[in-house]
Design a protein that fits this description.
Blueprint: H1 2-22, H2 30-51, H3 60-85, H4 90-96, H5 100-112, H6 118-134, H7 136-140, H8 147-174, H9 179-200, H10 211-239, H11 241-244, H12 247-262, H13 269-294
Length: about 300
Amino acid sequence: MRNLVLYLLCTLIWGSTWLVITFQLGAASPVASVFYRFLISAVLLLIACKAFRLPLDFKLKHHRWFLAQGICMFSVNYMLTYVAEGLISSGMVAVTFTLLLYYNILGTWLLFRTPVRRNVIFGAVIGGLGIGLIFLQEILSFKSGSTSLWGLVVGAVATVFASAGNLISYVHRKENIPVMSSNAFGMLYGSIFTFLVGLVLQQSFHADWTLKYTVSLLYLAVFGSVIAFGAYLSLVGRIGAEKASYTSILSPVIALTLSSFFENFHWTPEIATGIVLCLAGNVITLQKAKKRTAD
C-alpha cells in the first residue's frame, strides 16, 4: 500500500510539473530558476531534518556522493530540462523522459551486473521506435537548426543525468542514509553547482518576481522537488530503480493532457502512435521485470 501511495504521489505531481516549468520560462534564465528552486528545497529539507531529528552529520565519503547526486539529478538534469522546454512543448519533453527506464536498466547492468533480459531489449526497441515516430517529420526534414530535434536531444541528455542520480541513490540506501537527509545535501550541492555554472557562463540571476513565477517556483520547490523526489527516491530504495521507473508510464500521459489544454499541443496520427509505442515499450519491460521478481 505504501509503495502505491509513493507511486501516485510521483506520477500526479511530476505529471503536472512539466507544464508548471513553462511558467518559469522568460521570467528568469534556466540557470537562475533551477538555482532558486533547489536552494529553497534544500533549506526546507534541512529544516525538516532538524525538526524530525534526522542525521545531518556524515563522513566526507558520503558528502562526495551527495555532491555527485546533486550535480547530476538536481542541477545538470534540470538546467537541460528547462532548456528543452524552451524548444518543444512540456508534454513532448515528458515523453523523452520515458527513456529513463532504459537508462536505469543499462546503468544497473554496467554497475551492478544485473542481467538484461530479452524483454528489456524488445521493450527498448518498441520505445525507441515510438520516439522516432513522434519526431518523424523533423527527422525526415532534418535541419541542423531544428528546434524540435534539439529539444529531443537536450531532453534525452537530461534524462542520462537523471538516471545517474537514480543509481547514486543506491549508495545512500546501502549506507542506510535517510532519503530526506541525502536529498537535503544533494539539493544544496546541486544549487551551489548551478550557481557556479551561472557565474562561469555569465548568466543573470535576475528574475521577474510576478505572482505566476513566484507561485510556480514554490510549487516546483515544495511539491515537485521536496515531496515528489522524496517519494521517488524512497521507491528506488524500496523496490529498485528499474521498477520505480513505473512512474515513467503515467506521468507523460498527464503531462500531454495538460499540454493539450494549456499549450495548444496538436496531436497527429504519428505522434499519437509514437506515444502509444513509448508507453507500450515501458509496460512490456516492466511487466516482465515484475514477473521475474515474483519468481
